[in-house]
Amino acid sequence: MARPRLGAADLVHVLDAMARPLYVLDDEGRIVFCNQACLDWLGLEAAAVQGVRCRYQPPATEGSEAVAAGLCPPPPVFAGQEMHAPIASLGTDGQLSRRRAHFLPLEGQDGLAGILAVVEAEIAADESGSAAAESPAAPAECAEALALHEQLRTLRQQLGRRYALDRLVGTSAAMVQVRAQVELAASSTARVLLVGPPGSGRQHLASTIHYAQGLESGSLIPLACALLDPELIGATLAALARQGPRSSASPGTLLLNDADQLPLEVQREVAAALASRAFPLRVMATARQPLLSLARQGQYREDLAALLSTLVIELPPLSQRREDIPLLAQFFVEEANRQGEKQVLGFSPEALDMLASYAWPGNVDELIEVVRFAHRQCQSPQIGVRDLPPKLHEAASAALHPPRKEENIVLDEFLLRIERELLRRAMARAKGNKAKAARLLGITRPRLYRRLLQLGLAPPTPPAGPP
Fold first, then answer.
1. Each residue's pLDDT tens digit, 25-47
2. Is the dihedral of CA 61, 63, 69, 72 positive or negative?
3. For residues 347 and 329, is the Cβ–Cβ distance under 8 A?
């Protein structure tokens, strides 16, 4: 009697009966199957995940994008590398549940056919930061990028969905303080001054603070103080003031970009408008230097500086928080993954070293451009040194071969050194015989003796007679 053949429905039944969660992705990273144990862990129905594409990107906070980000394998798996790596699911209680998954590439006749993910042990909260680096099957060169990916996931959970993540990434003391100040600014309507060098993300952080209040925040109205003429600035403020007093539902925020560049002839008018209780908008400003410091130097109106400096948030240059560079670079790599088809794991340790040694005159904005360039150049699952832009290679080469410091040549000192050396050599060849040494040098014996005394190369002749 012929043995009965098992169909696809029978296979699904067997997999659904398994106690261990598992799921399958196709060659483009779309979820094609989750067994019942996996769906129970995710707290979802099959229809909610079927066909969702996984991208190796900054973790989202809700919806199918969050599911995909949590379950996505590291990019080397799509290149055929079998790996263990952490995955995550956001529970209904808002807590992040982490587990380790074993990713098995499924090879077909024409290359990768799909990926089988077998979900293994749960990762405790106190070991989640090192789980990626300690994964038994992860290549050593991937460990740092995997660990940074998990750090981003933890940071997203801590910040929640109130804030844009990119300009708040970092573990340095400066960024911990900035995040605390952003939390304070976002929970109030106090005027905020964001101080930092160009490229540090002042305007971006201002919009983060404004939109953290949700739909009630109203519109963000930017005003370029360095570009607009005084008449236009004055007319704009007058028009805004005519809107009347602020209601409980805020009509928005006025953002004075580069407030330190505000022309002196209009500062008085701006101060008068902002001092009026009838001014309807919340006010934020950006500047390269603290306005109160400029006022103490006589370079800015004291009343306007005080009005704009209720809460001051200082963004340090990237060169002063180098410990944040790896995490920032990882975030921008994953952001590039989210926006395109190419999926990249992160930077190799050698590439991270080159990023850390660069001066970053353009700060975070320059880092974003470097990461985008490297992401485009990269032809493997991980960005290497060869993928970084030429200016970083040139800076690294210049650091290894610094220009020699030019020394001034003082002629008299130089000639004395030469004469002293010639006298030493002549006396050595003559074995201390001054007459012979004088003949070697072509000078008289008295002259030789005088020069030996003057240069400290011979003791004076002791006086005749008893001591």
1. 999 999 999 999 999 999 889 99
2. positive
3. yes
